[in-house]
Design a protein that fits this description.
By secondary structure, the protein is α+β, with helices and mostly antiparallel strands. The protein has 2 domains: about 30-295, Beta-galactosidase, Chain A, domain 5 (Distorted Sandwich); about 300-720, GH92 mannosidase domain (GH92 mannosidase fold, 2-Layer Sandwich), CATH 3.30.2080. About 30% of the residues lie in helices and about 25% in strands. The chain is built from 18 helices and 33 strands. Strands 2, 5, 6, 7, 8, 9, 11, 12, 13, 16 and 18 form an 11-stranded antiparallel β-sheet that branches. The chain has a 7-stranded antiparallel β-sheet with strand order 1-3-4-10-17-14-15, with no helix packed on it. The chain has a 6-stranded mixed β-sheet with strand order 19-28-29-33-30-31, with helices on both faces. A hairpin with a 4-residue loop joins strand 24 (about 515-520) and strand 25 (about 525).
């Protein structure tokens, strides 16, 4: 009897040790950085939660479709203050630094330094790596960060000439400016670089400003213009420019404090004063570590293995990177009217992806940010004409639908305050009712050069026909289905302001998905403007096939069930979707599909599929994410699915129950008041015991596999009894 007692004592002590651990230690920014095609495409950013500027090693010369960092690479180009939100989007307003040694006879950014992952440390608050120079000497670079500033510490080989290069602007389209003041040990500058510039309107006043201050005297300096180095020249204004400084021979360690701003050089200085001032590198590192621990501790898990904790908190880290704060101590630059305003702002919303789970999760774990995120979307409407589809940092027209409507509706329905509700209604109604410029003849091709702000593609035809025709508008089936869902979302906002006629009209329109269900094929299908079905049944879909969009009707699941001939036929079709390998977790349109069995009385299938995909698609490794994270959506699916429930229909207050991963999870809603919490207890849960046998909420048996938002945020306890076999009566 002693051995089992000792074993369980070990498990208890192990769990207690984990509970007392700094949670930042479990978050691994490298998760999602390795893969050939289907992988997270994440970047190991050093940042604060929702920080304006992210800091990263660059193994590549970043562009749209080219990441800053990829794990397979073996050489480093430099270290960047980045605003690139995802691989498929562009960076903007960045600055890149690179330490070197020896004699500078060329620009050196094309000459990369080798490194090994064995020398690399990557944490949310700190990054470190040792690079090998051409003569195999080592330079160590360490990075830590605040919301808008970063600190880089360089350790050079002994008896060498230490150099730091600063790349202010890259070709081919935009100017940059840089100036070295050796007396102040300072470099200032800006660039107007925007990789996504051709996808949106021009911004005459856009600039990413920076101030760099060193802690060592400058012994020599120069600048470059194109590929031409200019010794002793301290200033450049041109399309491709940068600067370099050197320190006295024998200087072994130097620090650079870098402030960024989208407002001005003076604001960058103020950001540096507010966030770093006289703090040491170690103080900044420790404070940012504490900020991350405090954020991550908003969900505490007990009884998890170290592997499970690392996957979970790495996912939470990724969920807390975007949208990024864009305001700077009471002011912000707007990329929607190209001017500076007073107020709060956020940017870089991957809305087609993140409305599904990322934004609903933030309502639970980052409520102090959500009202500002919602108000920012409304401000973009006021300043630019529409809410954006994918701001980067202005309109880009990337992806489809107007899913800012979903983010607003979800916030409204779940009781978020602190934004202009009347303006929210106005913005959403414009999305629903006012076609974009030239909509009747514009096909709205993916990544087409900017002509007009793109809201709902094909809205002209949608209002006229009840669907978007494939012979008039690209991605017509997906646009129809997602437009119908957005109608449902706008209806909720209309209802909240008492516009009941609009509510009824939009709820009726939200049933338009039926117009593209082909009874002959029992699939969603493309249709021409004359009403005929298109011969190419795979035309008209966004990042998927007819199977990908067959169940994309989250606003009216009972109606979809009836459309397919009732529960039995719906279940057969859903079974065929999974059994026929049509389900593709690596992309967002099907993220809710595993939870649909809850709606037709077969919740045990949801439990099996959630547990399977949770295990299959997420790992504690650089290749630990099978599919683009897309600003946190892939990670948010995991966080919700590990807790045991999921928001199938953002814009409603309902969550579908899946299967909890941990023996106990606790969500804390107020970081200052730890008594306000929701506990999820899973008795007897294990890798084999993932089937729910029964569930109680605050002592009352759950008769259906659903929770409501107030059930969670009002606090309480959800208790699951778990077992190794399905219980088909668990929720009856």
């Amino acid at each position: 009897m002693k051995k089992p007692l000792l074993f369980f004592s070990f498990l208890l002590l192990n769990s207690i040790a984990f509970a007392q651990h700094n949670l930042t230690d479990f978050a691994n920014p490298l998760v999602g950085t390795r893969g050939i095609w289907l992988f997270g495409r994440t970047t190991p950013f050093v940042a604060t939660p929702f920080g304006m500027t992210h800091w990263t090693a660059c193994t590549r010369d970043s562009r749209i479709r080219i990441p800053n960092y990829k794990y397979f690479d073996t050489k480093i180009r430099g270290f960047r203050a980045s605003h690139k939100p995802a691989m498929w989007m562009g960076d903007y307003g960045y600055v890149t630094l690179k330490p070197s040694i020896g004699k500078l006879d060329k620009k050196l950014f094309a000459q990369k330094n080798s490194f090994s992952h064995l020398s690399e440390i990557s944490r949310p608050n700190y990054y470190s790596v040792k690079m090998a120079t051409a003569n195999l000497k080592k330079i160590q670079v360490e990075i830590t960060a605040t919301e808008r500033c970063g600190v880089m510490r360089y350790t050079f080989p002994e008896s060498e000439n230490p150099i730091v290069l600063i790349e202010a602007s890259q070709p081919p389209d935009f100017n940059g400016w840089i100036k070295v003041d050796s007396a102040k040990r300072e470099i200032i500058g800006w660039n107007s670089d925007r990789h996504s510039s051709k996808l949106g309107p021009p911004l005459q006043n856009f600039k990413g400003y920076f101030v760099i201050q060193f802690n060592k005297d400058v012994s020599a300096l120069g600048t470059w213009k194109g590929d031409t180095l200019q010794q002793h020249v301290s200033e450049q204004l041109t399309n491709e420019c940068g600067a370099w400084i050197s320190f006295s021979k024998g200087i072994k360690m130097a620090e650079a404090r870098i402030a960024t701003s989208f407002i001005s050089i003076e604001q960058a200085r103020e950001n540096l004063k507010q966030e770093i001032a006289d703090k040491t590198f170690e103080q900044v590192k420790t404070e940012t570590d504490s900020i991350w621990h405090k954020f991550l501790s908003r969900i505490e898990i007990e009884g998890a293995t170290k592997r499970e904790r690392k996957i979970f908190y790495s996912a939470m880290y990724h969920c807390a990177l975007f949208p990024r704060q864009f305001s700077e101590y009471g002011r912000y630059y707007s990329a929607f009217d190209d001017t500076v305003h007073n107020g709060v702002s956020y940017n870089d919303y991957s809305l087609w992806d993140t409305y599904r789970a990322e934004h609903p999760l933030l309502i639970l774990i980052a409520p102090e940010h959500v009202s500002g995120m919602v108000q920012s979307l409304i401000q973009m409407y006021e300043q630019g004409g529409y809410m954006p589809k994918w701001p980067n940092p202005t309109y880009t027209g990337i992806m489809i639908g107007t899913h800012a409507d979903a983010v607003l509706a979800d916030a409204v329905v779940k009781g978020v305050k602190g934004f202009d509700l009347e303006k929210a209604y106005e913005a959403c109604m414009k999305d629903a009712m006012v076609p974009s410029g030239n909509d009747s003849v514009n096909r709205w091709a993916d990544r087409a050069p900017f002509t007009y702000i793109e809201a709902r593609a094909g809205l002209h035809w949608y209002k006229k026909l009840g669907y978007v025709p494939v012979d008039k508008t690209n991605e017509s089936v997906s646009n129809t289905l997602e437009g119908a869902y957005d109608d449902f979302c706008v209806a909720q906002v209309a209802k909240a302001v008492g516009k009941m006629e609009d509510y009824e009209m939009l709820m009726k329109r939200s049933k338009n998905y039926v117009n593209l269900f082909n009874p002959a094929t029992q699939m969603m299908a493309p249709r021409n403007a004359d009403g005929s079905w298109a011969t190419n049944t795979h035309d008209g879909f966004t990042e998927g096939s007819p199977w990908t969009y067959l169940f994309a009707v989250t606003q009216d699941i009972p109606g979809l069930v009836n459309l397919m001939g009732g529960k039995e036929n719906f279940i057969k079709k859903l079974d065929a979707n999974f059994n026929g390998a049509h389900y593709f977790h690596q992309n967002e349109p099907g993220h809710h599909y595993t939870y649909l069995y809850d709606y037709v009385g077969q919740s045990w299938k949801t439990q099996r599929l959630v547990a399977f995909n949770r295990y299959l698609n997420y790992r504690n490794s650089a290749d630990g994410m099978d599919g683009d994270d897309d600003c946190g959506q892939m990670s948010a699916w995991y966080v919700f699915s590990a807790l045991g429930f999921y928001p199938v229909t953002p814009g409603s207050d309902v969550y579908a129950i899946g299967t909890p991963l941990f023996p106990k999870s606790t969500i804390y809603f107020d970081p200052e008041n730890r008594t306000k919490k929701f506990e999820i207890i899973a008795k007897h849960v294990s890798p084999l015991n993932y089937y729910v046998q029964s569930a109680t909420l605050n002592g009352k048996k759950l008769e259906e596999p659903f929770l409501h938002h107030l059930d969670i945020v009002n606090g309480g306890t959800l208790i699951f009894e778990m077992g190794p076999k399905p219980n088909k009566n668990a929720f009856r």
